[in-house]
Amino acid sequence: MSINQLSTPSSSIPLGQSQTHPQISSNGNPTITINTPLRPIKSESGFEFPAIWSFPPFFTLQPNPSTLNHQLELWRTLVLKWAKYERVFEVNVDSIEIPAVFENKRIKRRLLPPSMRRLFQAMSKNGEAAPDPPKQDTKYLIYWKKPEEWGDLIHTWVMDNGLNSSIMTFYEITDGDLSHTTEFYELPTSILRKALESLVKRGKAQLLEGKGEIGEGVRFL
């Protein structure tokens, strides 16, 4: 199967081409066929969903193993691009509010929670997501940047601003006055901690326990 084709159990439609829908006449017989091309759709925020997002079978995980692997690969790519654009760091697959990427209201299709779990399990195996807290399958962190990448970004920012050898709280890093223009602004604490732990392993930081009203901190080396 090519990367531009998604098969269904009974047929296959080349992605980006047209689907055909027969018109039914008053006597019940089909009369004409209307082509409905699959096109990218731009959201109100400006994110462009690919043409495959308008293909109804895309929202149902396929039984054929090779087709499923291809389908999950498409979903993984889409979720990471969407999460980065919208700055989404966490997803709850059982939430009443369905993240926009998992529901196409124009075609009345959505990815159901069991399928979302399967997707995030695949993303976790590829280091693109992680259950948070561990050992459950409802809440996931999305790594459109991996913790190590966030760690490098934070460390570079610290060095560029002459903050090396200083002690900073977690809050100052993600919500302080100096960080509001950075890409890691409002980064969830769970991802921040993993990012800082990656720096600790490389000898670039030391984690400090918080005391009283002072939250957890870190000394950059």
TrEMBL record:
What is one term from the GO cellular component aspect held by the record? Answer: ESCRT II complex
Q: Which UniProt keywords apply?
A: Protein transport, Transport
Question: Record keywords: Oxidoreductase included?
Answer: no
Q: Which domain of life is it from?
A: Eukaryota
* Record InterPro entries: ESCRT-II_cplx_Vps25-sub (IPR008570), ESCRT-II_cplx_Vps25-sub_N (IPR014041), WH-like_DNA-bd_sf (IPR036388), WH_DNA-bd_sf (IPR036390)
Q: Where is this region: Disordered?
A: 1-37
Matching entries from Pfam families are given as: ESCRT-II
* Polar residues bias spans: 1-36
Claim: Disulfide bond is one of the keywords in the record: no
Single GO BP term: macroautophagy
What GO molecular function terms would the record report? protein homodimerization activity; structural molecule activity
Q: Which family is this sequence assigned to?
A: Belongs to the VPS25 family.
Q: What is this protein called?
A: ESCRT-II complex subunit VPS25
